[in-house]
Amino acid sequence: MKTFFESLRKSKAFKNFILFLSVMGPGIITANVDNDAGGIATYSMAGAHFGYALLWSLVPITLALIIVQEMCARMAVATGKGLADLIRENYGVKVTFYLMAVIFVVNLFNVMAEFAGVAASLEIFHINKWISVPLSAVFVWILVLKGTYKSVEKVFLFACLFYVAYVISGVMAHPDWKTVFQETIHPRFQWNLGYTVMLVGLVGTTIAPWMQFYLQASVVEKGIAVEDYKHLRLDVIGGCVIAPLVAFFIVVACAATLFKAGVSVETAKDAALALRPLAGDYAAWLFSFGLFIASIFAASILPLSTAYCICEGMGWDAGVDKRFEEAPQFFWLYAVMIILGAGVVLIPRFPLLKIMYLSQVGNGVLLPFILMFMLSLINKKELMGEFTNSRGLNVITYITVVTIILLTLMMVGFSIFSF
Amino acid sequence: MKFFLYFSEILGRDVLDDKNQVVGKLCDMVLRLNNEVFPKAESIIVKKGLLRKEFANILLEDFQEVDGELKLKITRDQIKFQRQPFVSDFSIGQHVLDQQVVDIHDKKVVRVNDVHLLKVDNQLYLAHVDVGLRGIVRRLEWTKWVDVLVRYVSPKSPYLTQEELVSWKNTHVLNIGRTKNVVRLGVGREKLARIPPTALAEIMVDLDIFEKFSLFKVLNADMQRKVFTDLPVQEQEAIICQMEDQEAAILLEHIPADEATDLLLTLPKDKTRTWMRLMQSETSKNLQKLLGFSKDSAGGLMTTEYLCLGKDALVKDALQKIKDNVDYPGSIFYIYVVDDQHHLLGTTSFRRFINAPPQMPLAETCYPQQVFVRTDDGMEEVALLLERYKFSAIPVLNEEEVLQGVITSDDVLEELISLTWTKYKDQL
To answer: Given B56, B75, B91, which residue is the final one in a domain?
Structure first.
């Protein structure tokens, strides 16, 4: 027996596996935060309002997600710098400032979406948002600024197993698998406003701009060496497959239940019905739990990562271990994110689900610009050395950029046209 | 006539030829890199075209004036444009502006928002870097509006008057090592020598790996060892893995043996072996011995650097030994008296023999009582004895009473601090 373990320990595959485990993290974590409140809302609406008609888009989106995230991880390993740092050093303060301003606004909407997620999920339990939102804002504030976040992260990650509920529910709803399969591989486009907006939203929620900053920062922070890059790539690609897979089942579950019943998703309660095949009368509870965890998880990360990224770009001191006088800009940004993000949600009759969805459309509009910066950076030989993009990757990314811009233009065109 | 101007005031401005016609826009300024206090501007890089960009390198002598207007003495035919951007050893745009530099005075890493140029006799010198908020606002070309607004809201705000300039004398550029033509390493060394090694080590933690290494390379060997010893193990690992094997071996030889062992324990086996082979046999033998002990036992904590003398030594020999070893990396406060087989006979300290008659046998000055630990004793035991006898170092013996090494109180402290930290972090 001993010789078995010894030979196991010595085997190359085992060594690689151990290395993989130690490097694993950034990609998987990012992927799980990706399915936040905005994500759940967008995927639910996609399934409920369009049935299986949008499933095909998840295939190219997954491909683009893998390529984009891999580029971020590669830049982190090759340069040891965050994305905002690189943009500042290569394009100057002017470009950085305006870009950061836009990122701030878009991310603020994302934070709003997370708090809207908290409000919507707890409303199912008849907890007033005037209680739930301020309490969770305080919770997030303490969790992060007291430095306790890291230990809670594992709890969050574990809670993300909730997404399995959608997989089971999706299967138990007995969707017409033949149609599902056909719709997945057979792209069909609908020429109307609702469809294009939803498409931009799907892209924006799956390949969220803030994720790129977050992933690159976490890889840099982990200090992964160039030699371990191939293990990191595995982790990133793994995460990039898991996230859209969950999205796929959310859409299927919603399509097989809500779309079939002709329910239009207006509140969280409606969206929860998708879990009925699995949880029966407890569907609402299960959904509420999942949405709450996803919202709080992302709400802990998003304001902090935004504040870090802006300070990095502008050259201001940042860090939760600093005192206020040492890093005033950092703490101001963080505070404004949380207070404004949570505050707006408190407005009476605030359309919670709609904001969760629209914030993702904002992500989609911003994404091509971030991608253009990434493309330009990753092709700089003096920066990346042997890690520059291959021709094929460049072509695919350019196609992604052009497609999203075209979609955005169509969206604008349709909305002008429909007035 | 102004003496100072900001680089942002001329960056992107039109460059005019002798007939007052636009040639292109200023996009960068090349500086001469030498050991002068303020680097002198050599040439200006001009860019033209939007989609088909072209660049020209124009010497500063060819300018009539560089201030309110950027006017050339020469005609436009004399300017040669090329498609490739110019890569220079040292330019404001590539190496200073928007980059991170070390502020030697405040001992921290800062980002350059603007560059302050000194103008003497139509020559430009890099005088200061601007790291403040005003610099950012100036680059955004919002100074006028922001000033009016701030004056309206709070007329006494420090923002209005406070320029955060760092003199070039107190600045060290970081990202030069990244480009291929590495600048002469001597430049900046004297500046950096003014920062204490501990502060330099703290600065290094904030930098990315390439900047870390480029900063490290600039230091002289002695400074490198001091800074290296002050770095946390992960940082040491990152740096040493970037070094050539030969360099790494030399560095390892010259840092305290216990630090070297801690580092070697975290590194892959094949690297450790390569470096040990390159070391002088004596050092590597010592390291080999230390590597054999478990990390938190007395054997793992100890260092093999200590002073010892034979049993017949006199007080004057001891004094001479200390004088000869003032630069010794280990503790020179204690001298251990040993026999031919290196068995520990007694411990004496500087305090006990400094005033003793020179001809007195050293053994007579030893402490009346033998205090020591065994190689497999735990850290708690070591800490307890150090505290009880108020020693700053304690000898380590093996089962045969042979002196193996010593543990100094700072080694124990270091270990305890990192232990407390891990516990504290786990609680969070």
So the answer is: B91
Nearest chain B residue to A311 by CA distance is: B111
Q: Cα dist. B81→A236, B12, B20, B73 in Å?
A: 44, 17, 19, 17
Is the confidence at residue A10, as pLDDT, over 60? no
Same domain for B308 and B409? yes
CATH code for the domain in which residue B345 is found: 3.10.580.10
Tell if the CB–CB gap between B234 and A93 is shorter than 8 Å.
no
Do B402 and B308 fall within a single domain? yes
Q: Using CB atoms, which residue from B98, B175, B178 is nearest to A92? A: B98
Residues B346 and B397 in one domain: yes
Which of the two residues, A274 and B281, has the higher pLDDT score? A274
Model ipTM over 0.85: no
- Least confident range from A276-290, A373-387, B189-203, B322-336: namely B189-203
d(CA B43, CA B46): 10
Backbone φ and ψ of A192, nearest 5°: -145, 170
Domain of residue A97, residue span? 28-417
pTM above 0.90, yes or no: no
CB A112 within 8 Å of CB A359 = yes
pLDDT in the model for residue A20: 57
Task: Tell me how many domains chain B contains.
Answer: 4
Query: Distance (Å) from the C-alpha of residue B232 to the closest C-alpha of chain A?
Result: 14
Using the 3D structure, point to which of B144, B178, B212 is the last residue of a domain: B178
A10 CB near a chain B CB, below 8 Å?
no
The answer to whether residue B388 scores a pLDDT higher than 50 is yes
Judge if B164 and B85 occupy the same domain.
no
Q: What is the CATH number of the domain that holds B38?
A: 2.30.30.240
| Residue B242 is assigned to a structural domain of this protein | yes
Same domain, B130 and B72: no
Alpha helices in A51-82 (DSSP H): 58-79
pLDDT tens digits for range B110-122:
899 999 998 887 7
**pLDDT surpasses 60 at B186:** no
Task: Say if A146 is an interface residue toward chain B (CB within 8 Å).
Answer: yes
pLDDT of residue B206: 76
Which chain A residues are Cβ-neighbours of B209 within 8 angstroms? 80, 223
Distance from CA of B139 to the nearest CA of A (A): 7
Contact A93 B131 (CB under 8 A): no
Q: Are residues B105 and B161 in the same domain?
A: yes
Quote the domain boundaries for residue B71. 4-91
- Residues from chain B that touch A225, judged by Cβ atoms under 8 A, are 238, 241
Q: What is the pLDDT of residue A1?
A: 45
What's the CA gap between B254 and B275, in Å, rounded? 13
User: Using CA atoms, how far apart are residues B191 and B102, in angstroms rounded to an integer?
Assistant: 10
- Residue B183, pLDDT > 50, answer no
Same domain assignment for residues B74 and B17: yes
8 A C-beta contact, residue B404 and residue B397: yes
Q: Across residues B352-381, what is the average pLDDT? A: 87
pLDDT the model gives residue B182: 41
Query: CATH number, domain at A87?
Result: 1.20.1740.10
Residues of B in contact with A155 (CB under 8 A): none
- Within 8 A by CB and 6+ apart from B266, the residues are B233, B237
CA B17 to chain centre: 46
